[in-house]
Design a protein that fits this description.
Blueprint lengths: L5 H8 L2 H31 L4 E8 L12 E8 L6 H33 L6 H36 L17 E3 L10 H27 L4
Antiparallel strand pairs: 1-2, 1-3
């Protein structure tokens, strides 16, 4: 049976040319991501934003609907006539933070490739960089969706749309109301959160390995 030389195979895949290609492609991706982020944030600021909300309507206002339910729920998009500056700021921070963490990962990848080109090992510095990336991913996964939900709530409140129902003495709703999303743990980006946790654990293991390597240096 022919023996496979994994060292040579890895060398071909991650040789000098391959590392340079990784750096070039990642650098292009960073520039592209920065351009897309600027375009996305610019559009959200300059264009009239739309917000998806839930509308609750009493069935008395819709006699064509039959059933035992007393309230109809529908998902609609609301476009405020005058965008609220605070809502735009919150949404821009939420959107920009997602792009920022992706660019941070790209910068770290380039740094690792440069270290390999210079034949440097991965030590405490690499572990710290991975730890910073993991913490950033976790923070964005938790905070960005909450900021987006808060931005919608602020925009709806600034537009003067009714969010609290007027009721009769019997407790029945008398008008349609808008129910904006509220910050909640279910809004968390669990995919990005899991990726951040894995990156954080990788940083801890790399730091432990670097410490062991430092402690055993000169013993063998």
């Amino acid at each position: 049976m022919q023996r496979t030389d994994f060292g040579r195979t890895a060398g071909r895949l991650l040789g000098r040319g391959g590392l340079i290609a990784v750096i070039a492609v990642t650098a292009f991706g960073l520039v592209w991501t920065l351009a897309i982020a600027a375009l996305h944030i610019g559009q959200s600021i300059n264009a009239n934003p739309s917000y998806e909300v839930i509308v609750a309507t009493p069935l008395d206002d819709r006699p064509d609907l039959a059933g035992a339910a007393e309230i109809q729920w529908a998902s609609v998009f609301i476009v405020p006539e005058t965008p609220d500056a605070t809502a735009l700021l919150l949404e821009s921070i939420a959107v920009g933070s997602r792009y920022a963490v992706g660019m941070l990962a790209g910068i770290l990848l380039i740094w690792l490739a440069v270290r390999l080109l210079r034949q440097r090992s991965f030590g405490f510095g690499t572990a710290i960089a991975l730890g910073v990336l993991g913490v950033a991913m976790i923070a964005v996964a938790v905070a960005a969706p909450q900021l987006e939900a808060q931005a919608i709530a602020v925009a709806i409140d600034a537009a003067g749309v009714p969010t609290e129902a007027a009721t009769t003495s019997a407790g029945d709703m008398t008008e349609s109301i808008v129910i904006p999303p509220t910050p909640h743990w279910q809004n968390i980006d669990f995919s990005l959160l899991a990726l951040g946790v894995v990156t954080g654990f990788s940083a801890l293991m790399l730091g432990r390995a670097a410490r062991l390597q430092h402690d055993t240096r000169g013993l063998i």
